[in-house]
Amino acid sequence: MKNFKLVALVLLGLLAMFIVPSILAGAPTGAGPNDPLMVTGTPQTIAPKSSLWFYFDYTGDKSKIQAALDANGASGMQMAIFTPPQAQAWLSDQTTAPIALGSQPGAATNMAIHDLYWQGGFNFPGRFFVVITNSNSNAVTFRLSVTGDNVALAPTPTATPPMANPFATPIPTAQITGTLVFQDASGGVIYTVQGDGTNLKRVTTGLDPAFSPDGKQIAFTRWAQPAGVYTINADGTNEQTLLNIEQPLSPQWSPDGKRIVFTRPAGGPQGGAPFCFRGFCFSPMPDPHWKLGVIDLGTNALTQPECSNHCFAPTWFNDNHTIAYADGQFGVQVADTNGGPAWPLYTQNVSVQSTQVSPDGTKIVFMVRQNDHWEINVMNADGSNVAQVTRADPLSFVSVNNVAPTWSPDSKQILFLSDRGGKWEFFTVNPEGSNLRQVLKSVTDKTPIRYNFSNERVIDWIK
Q1: Is there a contact between 311 and 304 (Cβ–Cβ < 8 Å)?
Q2: Cβ pair 163, 397 in contact under 8 A
Q3: Disulfide-capable partner of 413 in 58, 80, 338, 408 (CB 3.0 to 4.6 Å)?
């Protein structure tokens, strides 16, 4: 009996380790209309044989609502629309039918890029729901978007966050020179704009845009079908598919413009059926693997440099064959695209994202997780002299994130995203941490940026 009690106590302790943190965290799970997720438009994963509830608010003026599901062509997916009364009925009867289901769009329509699509409108207001169901025996990565003139995906953010400190150090605004390409979200709209905020132009849709060395083309990836690595002229013409591949990320041109390196999915555990013990269920955590690929633009040949199972945000050195990248197991790693094993460059903290070598080849910038937030670091190209570039404001009451760094064309400034003002906005800073300025304010005031902490290449900068 004593042994049985001891085992029971150990099991209860283990259960508490998993259950208590999730209860205390209070984050929505998407389990139903009382606990729905926000529609972010970013890639996420749904477990096998499960459903996720998402919400949007609507004014009830009969204006158009559009919902689209991109699941990389996966079968066994369903998108259902529930009105507020139906959602309330579902709470007591989970066989309650939705008012509509998403359907496969016609091949000749401009919605053909989506796997499932629905369009409609209602004459009554309230909180409506989109329910995504995965009937497959494996996890599926998907992206849900809901749009409409009178659709609200979340409470409208105020200019200043509720906990903002009025005594926080003010940041001056400034203008920069050159041309920039940026995304408003992963898989969202890609724009070009001048450094002074003028001439904002929509180019295409996709992820992780990057200029070619001469600035005439933009490389990007797309997860919506047909998924792959793409190029397009900087003026938005002549979109070309370089490689059809599922879920690619972070394309970067070599300095000589002859090759493009990118991140690609490469198998790994995708989760599995839940294990249940006395009414408590646990699902194995997915651990998808991500490798590197290099496309030769002259021959379209694809090679695969050596790296671990979690390789992100590759960036070229000036020799046109060596790359650095963020490694989820080791920190910052380096590999030779011509062959040979990878080697470590920065191992002080494995929570590293968004590595980028400076145009002059002398330094590497990256972001590092520091307890409850992210900061920008820089180091010499050989891994020496690691220094923190951004720091917390000593007068601020809240922790802010400084993320997604990129270099100015002359290697003298670092451009990055920060949520210090209550929303994602762009800032520049010198590599040693001086001369912090807010830039492109006129752009972010009218074009909201969404960031997902997933090694996104949000912005790139040329002369």
Answers
A1: no
A2: yes
A3: 408
Decide if 354 contacts 455 (C-beta within 8 A): yes
Q: Residue 7 — very low, low, confident or very high, per pLDDT cuts 50/70/90?
A: very low
- Residue pair 461/356 in contact by the 8 Å Cβ criterion: no
**Length of the chain, in residues:** 463
30-38 CB contacts, 8 Å cutoff, 24+ apart: 30/54, 32/90, 32/91, 33/82, 33/87, 33/88, 33/90, 33/91, 33/129, 34/91, 36/129, 38/153, 38/154
CA distance 204 to 24: 41
pTM for the whole structure: 0.67
CA–CA dist 173, 170 (Å, integer): 10
List, as one string, the DSSP characters of 373-434. EEEEEEEETTS-S-EE-----TT-SS---EEEEEE-TTSS-EEEEE-TTSS-EEEEE-TTS-
Identify whether the C-beta of residue 356 lies closer than 8 Å to the C-beta of residue 315.
Answer: yes
Provide the token pair at 169: 């150090």
pLDDT reported for residue 169:
77
Q: Which amino acid is at 361?
A: G
pLDDT in tens, 383-420: 999 999 999 887 777 789 999 999 999 999 999 999 99
Q: Are 59 and 150 in contact (CB under 8 A)?
A: yes
Tokens representing 163? Answer: 């906990």
Six token digits for residue 380: 């010499």
CA–CA dist 398, 58 (Å, integer): 32
Mean pLDDT, range 440-448, rounded to an integer: 94
Are the C-beta atoms of residues 454 and 367 closer than 8 Å to each other? no
- Give how far the C-alpha of residue 69 lies from the chain's centroid of Cα atoms, to the nearest Å: 17
Q: How confident is the model over 179-195, as pLDDT tens digits?
A: 999 999 888 899 999 99
Place of tokens 């020496």: 384
Number of Cβ atoms within 10 Å of the Cβ of 202: 11
Segment among 99-108, 226-235, 282-291 with least mean pLDDT? 282-291
